[in-house]
Write a structure and sequence with these properties.
Length: 368
């Protein structure tokens, strides 16, 4: 039995090394290429539900963008606070703002995709740039950086949306590591010609592509996935571009408690089962090999069975991961996470396992 477990572990390690050295290294060692400014008209889409305070804090960073021709479409998604009043105050002061006030309907109750659809239809320009209400660009050239990636044949641009740092917080490091790890995957897969997701905190695509897909109709019944499911459906090796220059990043407010973060991740992960089968297989195999690497490796170490070989294999895999994810973290301005990568990975694996089980028992129903 230990022989079977040992050889299984060897296979697991090789699967992990394959993913890191073939897939994830693609983005880790990729350098951003400077692109000429497009200066194309852009509509920035912000969907807000009960976000009065975040809008007051972060909307000015969008309004103050150094870009010649952009519109801001502010969507009030049936908020119960003073979000609409805040939006109206900003609109009185800035002509670039267009308001879309969404009322709840029985058919689309608490459905962000319905609100986004109305906002996209109201947008004046063909090129759309999405950002969340609790999010801000890190520079005044965010729009310029993201729209520069809209070359002749590109209709989707994947960007990076990080989270602000909180000192002495393990939860904050866990949230940011999960974000870096996810970005490592979707950037790498897209670079290899198999794009499978993007994040709505920093994502761009054309209105033409949206209507070509008939909007979110294929997954309107799925509460989450306004970003990743749309990209999964419409992104191809030819129409998808990456934007990861430091000036193109956005930063969001991280969750302050484990419970609220888990609730958010349950909603995000619930959409993965609607990905294309090939994407589900690649992502599922990677996660399963991650889980088994630590479980089977720990079992063999505790039994001292071929412990020298097992120790070498564990060390090799951790070293490769450290190099690949470490370079990615530095590229995404998350260098402080590098020293904790193996520990944070174990936490993420356990968290994803808990979320997977929770989503099997009950489904998250609203986006907020």
């Amino acid at each position: 039995m230990l022989d079977i477990i040992f050889y299984s572990f060897v296979a697991i390690v090789f699967i992990q090394l394959f993913y890191y050295l073939v897939f994830l290294r693609t983005f880790a060692f990729l350098k951003p290429q400077p692109l000429p400014e497009q200066n194309i008209p852009v509509s920035v889409i912000v969907c807000a539900k009960n976000e009065e305070e975040n809008l007051k804090q972060f909307l000015p960073s969008i309004i103050e963008q150094n870009y010649p021709n952009f519109q801001i479409v502010l969507i009030n998604d049936a908020s119960g606070d003073e979000t609409l009043s805040v939006i109206e105050d900003f609109a009185e002061q800035h002509d670039c703002i267009k308001i879309v006030d969404v009322k709840n309907t029985e058919a689309f109750w608490a459905n962000k995709k319905y609100a986004l659809t109305l906002g996209i239809k109201a947008a004046t320009h063909n090129h759309l740039l999405f950002i969340d209400a609790d999010c801000k660009p890190v520079s005044k050239t965010w729009i310029s950086e993201m729209t520069a990636a809209f070359q002749t044949d590109k209709s989707i641009v994947l960007g990076y949306g990080g989270y602000s740092k909180v000192k002495n917080s393990l939860l904050n490091k866990l949230i940011r590591f999960e974000t870096v790890f996810t970005a490592s995957q979707y950037f790498s897969y897209a670079k290899l010609g198999i794009p499978y997701m993007g994040v709505g905190r920093n994502l761009a695509y054309t209105k033409t592509l949206f209507f070509e897909a008939n909007g979110f109709i294929n997954h309107m019944n799925v509460r989450s996935g306004d970003d990743d499911l749309f990209v999964n459906q419409m992104a191809t090796s030819k129409n998808t571009a990456l934007c990861f220059s430091p000036e193109s990043f956005t930063v969001s407010v991280p969750k302050k408690t484990l419970a609220t973060w888990l609730k958010q991740k349950r909603r995000h992960i619930s959409s993965a089962k609607y990905y294309k089968t090939s994407h589900q297989f690649l992502l599922g195999l990677f996660y399963l090999s991650q889980l088994l690497f630590w479980v089977v490796g720990s079992l063999l170490i505790s039994s001292l069975y071929h412990w020298e070989i097992v120790t070498c294999l564990i060390s090799l895999r951790i070293l490769i991961q450290w190099i690949v994810i470490g370079k990615t973290a530095k590229k995404l301005n998350e260098s402080d996470l590098v020293g904790l990568i193996p520990i944070l990975e174990i936490f993420i694996i356990l968290t994803q396992l808990v979320i997977f089980i929770s989503n099997k028992i009950s489904k998250p129903r609203t986006w907020k």
